[in-house]
Amino acid sequence: MKTRKYNAFLLSIVTVFIVVMLIGFELFIQVRSNRNQAYQTAGMLVNQVVSLIENNNDKIDLHTESLKEDYITRAKAIAYIIDQNVSLSFSEEELSKIAELIMVDEIHLFDTTGTIYAGTVPKYYGYSFDSGEQMAYFKPMLKNKELAMCQDVTPNTAEAKLMMYAICWNDDGTRMIQVGIEPLRLLSELHANEITEVVAGMPSYAGVDIIVADTETGLIEGSTIHDHTGKTLAEIGIDVVGRDLGTGAQFSARVDNKSVYCLARQYKEYTIAITNVKSAVNENVIRPIILTFLYVVAAVLIIFIIVRNMTTQIIEEQKLSNTDQMTELFNRRAYEADIETLSKSALPEDLVYVSMDLNSLKVTNDDLGHDAGDTLIKGAAECMRQCFEEYGKLYRIGGDEFVALLNTERNIPDLLDELKMLCEKWSENNGFNLTISCGYVRTKDYEGYNLHELSLFADSGMYKDKEQYYIEKGIDRRRS
Protein backbone atom coordinates (compact mmCIF):
# COMPACT_ATOMS: atom_id res chain seq x y z
CA MET A 1 0.00 0.00 0.00
CA LYS A 2 2.85 2.37 0.89
CA THR A 3 4.52 1.58 -2.43
CA ARG A 4 1.31 2.37 -4.30
CA LYS A 5 0.93 5.67 -2.45
CA TYR A 6 4.56 6.52 -3.17
CA ASN A 7 4.12 5.65 -6.87
CA ALA A 8 0.94 7.74 -7.01
CA PHE A 9 2.77 10.65 -5.37
CA LEU A 10 5.71 10.26 -7.74
CA LEU A 11 3.37 10.13 -10.73
CA SER A 12 1.65 13.31 -9.50
CA ILE A 13 5.00 15.11 -9.19
CA VAL A 14 6.08 13.96 -12.65
CA THR A 15 2.70 14.98 -14.09
CA VAL A 16 2.87 18.44 -12.53
CA PHE A 17 6.45 18.82 -13.80
CA ILE A 18 5.44 17.80 -17.32
CA VAL A 19 2.43 20.14 -17.28
CA VAL A 20 4.56 23.06 -16.05
CA MET A 21 7.23 22.32 -18.66
CA LEU A 22 4.65 22.11 -21.45
CA ILE A 23 2.98 25.34 -20.33
CA GLY A 24 6.38 27.03 -20.11
CA PHE A 25 7.28 25.75 -23.56
CA GLU A 26 3.93 26.89 -24.95
CA LEU A 27 4.42 30.31 -23.33
CA PHE A 28 7.91 30.58 -24.82
CA ILE A 29 6.69 29.57 -28.28
CA GLN A 30 3.68 31.90 -28.15
CA VAL A 31 5.67 34.91 -26.94
CA ARG A 32 8.37 34.25 -29.51
CA SER A 33 5.78 33.90 -32.26
CA ASN A 34 4.08 37.13 -31.19
CA ARG A 35 7.42 38.91 -31.09
CA ASN A 36 8.30 37.74 -34.60
CA GLN A 37 4.89 38.77 -35.86
CA ALA A 38 5.30 42.18 -34.22
CA TYR A 39 8.64 42.65 -35.98
CA GLN A 40 7.14 41.51 -39.29
CA THR A 41 4.34 44.04 -38.92
CA ALA A 42 6.89 46.67 -37.94
CA GLY A 43 8.91 45.86 -41.04
CA MET A 44 5.81 46.31 -43.15
CA LEU A 45 5.14 49.65 -41.47
CA VAL A 46 8.73 50.76 -42.02
CA ASN A 47 8.34 49.93 -45.69
CA GLN A 48 5.10 51.88 -45.68
CA VAL A 49 6.80 54.91 -44.13
CA VAL A 50 9.68 54.60 -46.57
CA SER A 51 7.20 54.39 -49.42
CA LEU A 52 5.36 57.46 -48.17
CA ILE A 53 8.58 59.42 -47.75
CA GLU A 54 9.68 58.44 -51.25
CA ASN A 55 6.35 59.37 -52.74
CA ASN A 56 6.20 62.70 -50.96
CA ASN A 57 9.70 63.53 -52.25
CA ASP A 58 8.83 62.79 -55.86
CA LYS A 59 8.02 65.52 -58.34
CA ILE A 60 4.39 66.25 -59.23
CA ASP A 61 4.68 64.91 -62.75
CA LEU A 62 5.88 61.53 -61.45
CA HIS A 63 3.47 61.38 -58.56
CA THR A 64 0.78 59.38 -60.27
CA GLU A 65 3.20 56.65 -61.37
CA SER A 66 4.81 56.49 -57.96
CA LEU A 67 1.37 56.23 -56.40
CA LYS A 68 0.67 53.23 -58.58
CA GLU A 69 3.71 51.46 -57.18
CA ASP A 70 2.75 52.60 -53.72
CA TYR A 71 -0.78 51.28 -54.03
CA ILE A 72 0.49 47.94 -55.29
CA THR A 73 2.81 47.89 -52.27
CA ARG A 74 -0.19 48.58 -50.07
CA ALA A 75 -2.10 45.77 -51.74
CA LYS A 76 0.85 43.45 -51.12
CA ALA A 77 1.10 44.65 -47.54
CA ILE A 78 -2.56 43.87 -47.04
CA ALA A 79 -2.05 40.48 -48.72
CA TYR A 80 0.80 39.82 -46.27
CA ILE A 81 -1.30 40.86 -43.26
CA ILE A 82 -4.22 38.67 -44.34
CA ASP A 83 -1.90 35.72 -45.02
CA GLN A 84 -0.66 36.03 -41.45
CA ASN A 85 -4.24 35.93 -40.14
CA VAL A 86 -6.70 34.58 -42.72
CA SER A 87 -9.68 35.21 -40.40
CA LEU A 88 -9.25 38.95 -41.06
CA SER A 89 -10.47 38.40 -44.60
CA PHE A 90 -13.95 37.55 -43.35
CA SER A 91 -14.37 40.62 -41.14
CA GLU A 92 -15.46 43.86 -42.76
CA GLU A 93 -14.55 45.70 -39.57
CA GLU A 94 -10.98 44.33 -39.46
CA LEU A 95 -10.50 44.98 -43.18
CA SER A 96 -11.67 48.55 -42.64
CA LYS A 97 -9.06 48.95 -39.89
CA ILE A 98 -6.40 47.64 -42.25
CA ALA A 99 -7.64 49.97 -44.99
CA GLU A 100 -7.29 52.87 -42.58
CA LEU A 101 -3.83 51.71 -41.48
CA ILE A 102 -2.55 51.28 -45.04
CA MET A 103 -4.31 54.50 -46.14
CA VAL A 104 -6.62 53.13 -48.82
CA ASP A 105 -10.33 53.78 -49.29
CA GLU A 106 -11.44 50.32 -50.31
CA ILE A 107 -10.22 46.74 -50.05
CA HIS A 108 -11.65 43.99 -52.28
CA LEU A 109 -10.70 40.31 -52.15
CA PHE A 110 -11.05 38.33 -55.39
CA ASP A 111 -11.06 34.54 -55.72
CA THR A 112 -9.12 32.71 -58.40
CA THR A 113 -11.95 33.22 -60.92
CA GLY A 114 -11.79 37.00 -60.59
CA THR A 115 -14.92 37.41 -58.45
CA ILE A 116 -15.16 39.66 -55.37
CA TYR A 117 -16.05 37.57 -52.31
CA ALA A 118 -15.05 39.89 -49.44
CA GLY A 119 -13.89 43.40 -48.70
CA THR A 120 -14.80 46.71 -47.10
CA VAL A 121 -17.74 47.37 -49.45
CA PRO A 122 -20.25 44.49 -49.26
CA LYS A 123 -22.42 45.87 -52.08
CA TYR A 124 -19.58 45.05 -54.51
CA TYR A 125 -19.57 41.34 -53.58
CA GLY A 126 -20.22 39.22 -56.65
CA TYR A 127 -18.72 41.68 -59.15
CA SER A 128 -16.11 40.07 -61.36
CA PHE A 129 -13.68 40.90 -64.16
CA ASP A 130 -16.59 40.26 -66.53
CA SER A 131 -18.82 42.91 -64.89
CA GLY A 132 -17.73 45.83 -67.02
CA GLU A 133 -14.95 47.54 -68.95
CA GLN A 134 -13.30 48.97 -65.87
CA MET A 135 -13.22 45.55 -64.19
CA ALA A 136 -12.10 43.79 -67.36
CA TYR A 137 -8.84 45.77 -67.22
CA PHE A 138 -7.56 43.29 -64.63
CA LYS A 139 -8.23 40.08 -66.60
CA PRO A 140 -4.50 39.51 -67.27
CA MET A 141 -4.19 38.76 -63.53
CA LEU A 142 -5.95 35.43 -64.15
CA LYS A 143 -3.21 34.28 -66.50
CA ASN A 144 -0.15 35.44 -64.57
CA LYS A 145 -0.05 35.15 -60.80
CA GLU A 146 3.27 37.01 -60.73
CA LEU A 147 1.53 40.07 -62.13
CA ALA A 148 0.58 43.17 -60.09
CA MET A 149 -1.42 45.96 -61.73
CA CYS A 150 -2.53 49.50 -60.94
CA GLN A 151 -5.20 51.24 -62.96
CA ASP A 152 -5.24 54.89 -63.95
CA VAL A 153 -8.00 57.12 -62.63
CA THR A 154 -11.12 55.43 -64.03
CA PRO A 155 -14.88 55.51 -63.28
CA ASN A 156 -15.65 52.34 -61.37
CA THR A 157 -18.18 49.83 -62.67
CA ALA A 158 -20.75 50.11 -59.91
CA GLU A 159 -21.16 53.89 -59.50
CA ALA A 160 -18.97 55.52 -62.16
CA LYS A 161 -17.02 57.05 -59.27
CA LEU A 162 -13.48 58.17 -60.13
CA MET A 163 -11.08 55.71 -58.49
CA MET A 164 -7.61 54.23 -58.78
CA TYR A 165 -7.38 50.49 -58.19
CA ALA A 166 -4.26 48.40 -57.55
CA ILE A 167 -4.29 44.61 -57.40
CA CYS A 168 -1.90 41.75 -56.69
CA TRP A 169 -1.93 38.04 -55.84
CA ASN A 170 -1.06 36.80 -52.38
CA ASP A 171 2.06 34.63 -51.95
CA ASP A 172 0.37 31.23 -52.42
CA GLY A 173 -1.88 32.38 -55.28
CA THR A 174 -5.19 31.66 -53.54
CA ARG A 175 -6.65 35.15 -53.67
CA MET A 176 -6.19 38.60 -55.24
CA ILE A 177 -6.15 41.73 -53.11
CA GLN A 178 -7.34 44.98 -54.64
CA VAL A 179 -7.13 48.41 -53.06
CA GLY A 180 -9.07 51.45 -54.22
CA ILE A 181 -8.15 55.10 -53.70
CA GLU A 182 -10.07 58.20 -54.72
CA PRO A 183 -7.81 60.43 -56.92
CA LEU A 184 -8.88 63.47 -54.94
CA ARG A 185 -6.36 62.24 -52.38
CA LEU A 186 -3.53 63.14 -54.78
CA LEU A 187 -3.75 66.80 -53.82
CA SER A 188 -3.89 66.12 -50.11
CA GLU A 189 -0.92 63.76 -50.34
CA LEU A 190 1.09 66.37 -52.21
CA HIS A 191 0.16 68.89 -49.57
CA ALA A 192 1.20 66.53 -46.79
CA ASN A 193 4.83 66.49 -47.83
CA GLU A 194 6.20 67.26 -44.41
CA ILE A 195 7.43 64.29 -42.33
CA THR A 196 5.42 65.52 -39.35
CA GLU A 197 2.20 65.45 -41.33
CA VAL A 198 3.05 62.18 -43.06
CA VAL A 199 3.71 60.28 -39.83
CA ALA A 200 1.15 61.99 -37.62
CA GLY A 201 -1.50 61.24 -40.20
CA MET A 202 -0.78 57.52 -40.20
CA PRO A 203 -3.26 55.58 -38.07
CA SER A 204 -2.00 52.51 -36.22
CA TYR A 205 -3.27 49.72 -34.03
CA ALA A 206 -3.27 50.11 -30.26
CA GLY A 207 0.21 49.87 -28.81
CA VAL A 208 1.99 50.66 -32.11
CA ASP A 209 3.95 53.89 -32.56
CA ILE A 210 5.59 55.07 -35.77
CA ILE A 211 8.54 57.44 -35.29
CA VAL A 212 10.69 59.25 -37.87
CA ALA A 213 13.79 61.10 -36.65
CA ASP A 214 16.74 62.89 -38.17
CA THR A 215 19.59 60.38 -38.21
CA GLU A 216 22.31 62.95 -37.53
CA THR A 217 20.70 64.75 -34.59
CA GLY A 218 18.30 62.03 -33.38
CA LEU A 219 15.55 64.67 -33.24
CA ILE A 220 12.07 63.23 -33.82
CA GLU A 221 10.38 65.00 -36.72
CA GLY A 222 7.21 62.94 -36.78
CA SER A 223 5.45 60.46 -34.52
CA THR A 224 1.99 58.94 -34.18
CA ILE A 225 2.35 59.87 -30.50
CA HIS A 226 2.41 63.66 -30.77
CA ASP A 227 4.24 64.17 -27.44
CA HIS A 228 7.34 62.56 -28.94
CA THR A 229 7.72 65.12 -31.71
CA GLY A 230 10.56 67.53 -30.90
CA LYS A 231 12.32 65.14 -28.51
CA THR A 232 15.28 62.94 -29.34
CA LEU A 233 15.14 59.15 -29.68
CA ALA A 234 17.39 58.78 -26.63
CA GLU A 235 15.07 61.00 -24.54
CA ILE A 236 12.08 58.72 -25.10
CA GLY A 237 14.13 55.55 -24.43
CA ILE A 238 15.22 54.38 -27.91
CA ASP A 239 18.99 53.90 -28.03
CA VAL A 240 20.24 53.31 -31.57
CA VAL A 241 23.89 54.10 -30.92
CA GLY A 242 26.12 51.32 -32.21
CA ARG A 243 23.28 49.44 -33.87
CA ASP A 244 23.33 48.46 -37.54
CA LEU A 245 20.28 50.22 -38.92
CA GLY A 246 21.02 49.50 -42.56
CA THR A 247 18.79 46.42 -42.79
CA GLY A 248 16.85 47.11 -39.61
CA ALA A 249 17.77 46.48 -35.97
CA GLN A 250 15.42 44.56 -33.67
CA PHE A 251 15.67 45.15 -29.92
CA SER A 252 13.68 45.71 -26.74
CA ALA A 253 13.32 49.17 -25.23
CA ARG A 254 11.35 51.02 -22.60
CA VAL A 255 9.29 53.91 -23.95
CA ASP A 256 6.89 55.92 -21.79
CA ASN A 257 7.45 53.41 -18.95
CA LYS A 258 6.24 50.59 -21.20
CA SER A 259 8.33 47.64 -22.40
CA VAL A 260 8.25 47.57 -26.21
CA TYR A 261 9.58 45.67 -29.18
CA CYS A 262 11.41 48.13 -31.40
CA LEU A 263 12.44 47.91 -35.04
CA ALA A 264 14.69 50.75 -36.21
CA ARG A 265 15.92 51.27 -39.75
CA GLN A 266 17.83 54.04 -41.46
CA TYR A 267 16.48 55.44 -44.72
CA LYS A 268 18.49 58.22 -46.32
CA GLU A 269 18.65 61.01 -43.75
CA TYR A 270 15.93 59.49 -41.57
CA THR A 271 15.83 56.92 -38.78
CA ILE A 272 12.48 55.15 -38.81
CA ALA A 273 11.47 53.34 -35.62
CA ILE A 274 8.38 51.22 -35.00
CA THR A 275 7.57 50.39 -31.39
CA ASN A 276 5.03 47.78 -30.31
CA VAL A 277 4.01 47.53 -26.65
CA LYS A 278 4.75 43.98 -25.43
CA SER A 279 1.65 43.72 -23.26
CA ALA A 280 -0.53 44.52 -26.29
CA VAL A 281 1.37 42.06 -28.49
CA ASN A 282 1.04 39.25 -25.93
CA GLU A 283 -2.50 39.91 -24.75
CA ASN A 284 -3.63 36.75 -26.57
CA VAL A 285 -1.14 34.51 -24.73
CA ILE A 286 -3.26 33.64 -21.67
CA ARG A 287 -6.09 31.91 -23.53
CA PRO A 288 -3.94 29.41 -25.46
CA ILE A 289 -1.91 28.75 -22.30
CA ILE A 290 -5.11 27.94 -20.39
CA LEU A 291 -6.32 25.75 -23.25
CA THR A 292 -2.96 24.00 -23.36
CA PHE A 293 -3.12 23.42 -19.61
CA LEU A 294 -6.62 21.97 -19.88
CA TYR A 295 -5.62 19.78 -22.83
CA VAL A 296 -2.54 18.50 -21.02
CA VAL A 297 -4.47 17.79 -17.81
CA ALA A 298 -7.15 15.97 -19.80
CA ALA A 299 -4.51 13.99 -21.70
CA VAL A 300 -2.68 13.09 -18.48
CA LEU A 301 -5.93 11.98 -16.84
CA ILE A 302 -6.84 9.87 -19.85
CA ILE A 303 -3.37 8.31 -19.96
CA PHE A 304 -3.46 7.73 -16.20
CA ILE A 305 -6.85 6.01 -16.43
CA ILE A 306 -5.72 3.89 -19.39
CA VAL A 307 -2.45 2.89 -17.68
CA ARG A 308 -4.24 2.17 -14.41
CA ASN A 309 -6.84 0.02 -16.16
CA MET A 310 -4.19 -1.80 -18.17
CA THR A 311 -2.06 -2.35 -15.06
CA THR A 312 -5.07 -3.59 -13.11
CA GLN A 313 -6.00 -5.90 -15.97
CA ILE A 314 -2.45 -7.24 -16.24
CA ILE A 315 -2.27 -7.80 -12.48
CA GLU A 316 -5.65 -9.56 -12.49
CA GLU A 317 -4.70 -11.72 -15.45
CA GLN A 318 -1.37 -12.58 -13.85
CA LYS A 319 -3.11 -13.33 -10.59
CA LEU A 320 -5.63 -15.58 -12.30
CA SER A 321 -2.91 -17.41 -14.20
CA ASN A 322 -1.06 -18.13 -10.94
CA THR A 323 -4.06 -18.77 -8.66
CA ASP A 324 -5.90 -22.01 -7.94
CA GLN A 325 -9.54 -21.21 -8.62
CA MET A 326 -10.96 -23.48 -5.92
CA THR A 327 -8.79 -22.49 -2.96
CA GLU A 328 -7.44 -19.09 -4.15
CA LEU A 329 -3.97 -20.30 -3.14
CA PHE A 330 -1.11 -20.21 -5.61
CA ASN A 331 -1.34 -22.98 -8.22
CA ARG A 332 1.21 -25.45 -9.57
CA ARG A 333 2.30 -23.01 -12.27
CA ALA A 334 3.22 -20.41 -9.64
CA TYR A 335 4.89 -23.14 -7.55
CA GLU A 336 7.12 -24.29 -10.41
CA ALA A 337 8.03 -20.70 -11.31
CA ASP A 338 9.03 -19.94 -7.70
CA ILE A 339 10.95 -23.21 -7.38
CA GLU A 340 12.88 -22.38 -10.55
CA THR A 341 13.70 -18.91 -9.24
CA LEU A 342 14.84 -20.22 -5.86
CA SER A 343 16.98 -22.89 -7.53
CA LYS A 344 19.04 -20.30 -9.39
CA SER A 345 20.76 -19.07 -6.23
CA ALA A 346 21.76 -20.19 -2.78
CA LEU A 347 18.77 -21.13 -0.65
CA PRO A 348 17.98 -18.92 2.38
CA GLU A 349 19.03 -20.56 5.66
CA ASP A 350 15.64 -20.02 7.27
CA LEU A 351 13.63 -21.42 4.34
CA VAL A 352 11.19 -24.16 5.38
CA TYR A 353 9.61 -26.52 2.85
CA VAL A 354 6.32 -28.02 4.14
CA SER A 355 4.60 -30.84 2.22
CA MET A 356 0.92 -31.47 3.11
CA ASP A 357 -1.75 -33.91 2.01
CA LEU A 358 -5.38 -34.44 3.10
CA ASN A 359 -6.23 -37.72 4.78
CA SER A 360 -9.07 -39.94 3.52
CA LEU A 361 -10.17 -37.59 0.75
CA LYS A 362 -10.98 -40.58 -1.49
CA VAL A 363 -13.27 -42.00 1.21
CA THR A 364 -15.10 -38.68 1.44
CA ASN A 365 -15.47 -38.47 -2.34
CA ASP A 366 -16.74 -42.08 -2.54
CA ASP A 367 -19.12 -41.88 0.42
CA LEU A 368 -20.34 -38.28 0.32
CA GLY A 369 -19.60 -37.14 -3.22
CA HIS A 370 -17.07 -34.84 -4.82
CA ASP A 371 -18.81 -31.70 -3.54
CA ALA A 372 -18.02 -32.84 -0.01
CA GLY A 373 -14.44 -33.56 -1.11
CA ASP A 374 -14.18 -30.03 -2.54
CA THR A 375 -15.46 -28.65 0.76
CA LEU A 376 -12.65 -30.47 2.56
CA ILE A 377 -10.06 -29.08 0.14
CA LYS A 378 -11.37 -25.54 0.64
CA GLY A 379 -11.44 -26.04 4.41
CA ALA A 380 -7.86 -27.28 4.39
CA ALA A 381 -6.79 -24.24 2.39
CA GLU A 382 -8.56 -21.95 4.85
CA CYS A 383 -6.79 -23.55 7.83
CA MET A 384 -3.40 -23.42 6.07
CA ARG A 385 -3.91 -19.77 5.23
CA GLN A 386 -4.67 -18.91 8.86
CA CYS A 387 -1.63 -20.82 10.07
CA PHE A 388 1.05 -20.10 7.43
CA GLU A 389 0.16 -17.07 5.35
CA GLU A 390 2.07 -14.52 7.43
CA TYR A 391 5.26 -16.57 7.04
CA GLY A 392 5.34 -17.29 3.33
CA LYS A 393 3.46 -18.65 0.32
CA LEU A 394 0.97 -21.50 -0.02
CA TYR A 395 0.45 -23.66 -3.10
CA ARG A 396 -2.08 -26.29 -4.18
CA ILE A 397 0.01 -28.46 -6.49
CA GLY A 398 -2.45 -31.32 -6.98
CA GLY A 399 -5.90 -32.60 -5.98
CA ASP A 400 -5.26 -32.71 -2.22
CA GLU A 401 -1.54 -31.94 -2.29
CA PHE A 402 -0.30 -28.67 -0.81
CA VAL A 403 3.09 -27.05 -0.27
CA ALA A 404 4.14 -24.14 1.95
CA LEU A 405 7.40 -22.26 1.42
CA LEU A 406 8.03 -20.40 4.66
CA ASN A 407 10.65 -18.01 5.98
CA THR A 408 10.49 -18.19 9.75
CA GLU A 409 12.52 -19.09 12.81
CA ARG A 410 9.47 -20.49 14.57
CA ASN A 411 9.44 -24.07 15.81
CA ILE A 412 7.84 -25.90 12.88
CA PRO A 413 6.39 -28.85 14.86
CA ASP A 414 4.52 -26.31 17.04
CA LEU A 415 3.30 -24.55 13.91
CA LEU A 416 2.07 -27.86 12.42
CA ASP A 417 0.28 -28.65 15.70
CA GLU A 418 -1.51 -25.31 15.35
CA LEU A 419 -2.57 -26.33 11.84
CA LYS A 420 -4.03 -29.61 13.09
CA MET A 421 -5.89 -27.79 15.88
CA LEU A 422 -7.36 -25.41 13.30
CA CYS A 423 -8.46 -28.44 11.24
CA GLU A 424 -10.18 -29.96 14.32
CA LYS A 425 -11.97 -26.70 15.00
CA TRP A 426 -13.03 -26.44 11.37
CA SER A 427 -14.33 -30.04 11.48
CA GLU A 428 -16.45 -29.28 14.53
CA ASN A 429 -17.98 -26.22 12.86
CA ASN A 430 -18.63 -27.84 9.47
CA GLY A 431 -19.54 -31.47 10.26
CA PHE A 432 -16.67 -32.99 8.26
CA ASN A 433 -13.58 -34.85 9.39
CA LEU A 434 -10.66 -32.75 8.15
CA THR A 435 -7.16 -33.98 8.92
CA ILE A 436 -3.87 -33.22 7.20
CA SER A 437 -0.60 -35.11 7.10
CA CYS A 438 2.53 -32.96 7.03
CA GLY A 439 6.25 -33.27 6.48
CA TYR A 440 8.87 -30.53 6.46
CA VAL A 441 12.53 -29.71 6.09
CA ARG A 442 14.51 -26.61 7.01
CA THR A 443 17.33 -25.69 4.62
CA LYS A 444 19.87 -25.01 7.35
CA ASP A 445 19.41 -28.61 8.55
CA TYR A 446 20.16 -29.99 5.08
CA GLU A 447 23.15 -28.05 3.80
CA GLY A 448 24.33 -29.02 0.32
CA TYR A 449 20.97 -30.32 -0.88
CA ASN A 450 19.02 -28.68 -3.67
CA LEU A 451 15.38 -27.72 -3.47
CA HIS A 452 14.18 -30.78 -5.38
CA GLU A 453 15.94 -33.07 -2.90
CA LEU A 454 14.50 -31.11 0.01
CA SER A 455 11.01 -31.55 -1.41
CA LEU A 456 11.54 -35.34 -1.48
CA PHE A 457 12.62 -35.30 2.17
CA ALA A 458 9.52 -33.27 3.07
CA ASP A 459 7.28 -35.66 1.10
CA SER A 460 8.87 -38.61 2.92
CA GLY A 461 8.06 -36.99 6.24
CA MET A 462 4.50 -36.34 5.10
CA TYR A 463 4.02 -39.99 4.07
CA LYS A 464 5.29 -41.17 7.45
CA ASP A 465 2.83 -38.84 9.17
CA LYS A 466 0.03 -40.16 6.98
CA GLU A 467 0.97 -43.79 7.67
CA GLN A 468 0.92 -43.10 11.42
CA TYR A 469 -2.52 -41.49 11.08
CA TYR A 470 -3.97 -44.53 9.29
CA ILE A 471 -2.48 -46.90 11.86
CA GLU A 472 -3.94 -44.88 14.76
CA LYS A 473 -7.35 -44.68 13.14
CA GLY A 474 -7.35 -48.27 11.91
CA ILE A 475 -8.11 -47.17 8.37
CA ASP A 476 -7.42 -49.39 5.38
CA ARG A 477 -4.81 -47.43 3.40
CA ARG A 478 -5.97 -48.97 0.12
CA ARG A 479 -9.35 -47.27 0.50
CA SER A 480 -7.94 -43.82 1.31
Task: Give an account of the 3D structure.
This protein starts with a helix and ends in a 7-residue tail after the last helix. Strands 1, 2, 3, 4, 5 and 6 form a six-stranded antiparallel β-sheet that branches. The protein has a five-stranded antiparallel β-sheet with strand order 8-7-11-10-9. A four-stranded antiparallel β-sheet has the order 13-14-12-15, with helices on both faces. Helix 11 packs antiparallel against helix 12 and helix 12 packs across helix 13. The protein has two domains: 256 residues, 2-Layer Sandwich (Beta-Lactamase), CATH 3.30.450.20; 148 residues, Alpha-Beta Plaits, CATH 3.30.70.270. It has 14 helices and 15 strands. The mean pLDDT is 84. It is an alpha+beta fold.
Features:
480 residues, five-stranded antiparallel β-sheet, Alpha-Beta Plaits, Beta-Lactamase, 2 domains, 15 strands, single chain, six-stranded antiparallel β-sheet, 48% helix
Total DSSP helices: 14
Poorly predicted regions are: none
Going by CATH, what is the homologous superfamily of the largest domain? Answer: PAS domain
Major sheet, described briefly? 6 strands, antiparallel
Would you list the SSEs in sequence order as H and E?
A: HHHEEHEEEEHHEEHEEEHHHEHHEEHEH
Total strands: 15
Reconstruct the topology from this structure.
Blueprint: H1 2-57, H2 63-84, H3 92-102, E1 106-110, E2 116-119, H4 133-136, E3 148-150, E4 154-155, E5 162-169, E6 176-181, H5 185-191, H6 195-200, E7 208-214, E8 220-223, H7 233-236, E9 249-255, E10 258-267, E11 270-277, H8 278-281, H9 286-321, H10 332-343, E12 351-358, H11 361-368, H12 370-388, E13 392-396, E14 401-407, H13 412-430, E15 436-442, H14 451-473
Antiparallel strand pairs: 1-2, 1-6, 3-5, 4-5, 5-6, 7-8, 7-11, 9-10, 10-11, 12-14, 12-15, 13-14
Helix pairs in contact: 1-2, 1-9, 11-12, 12-13
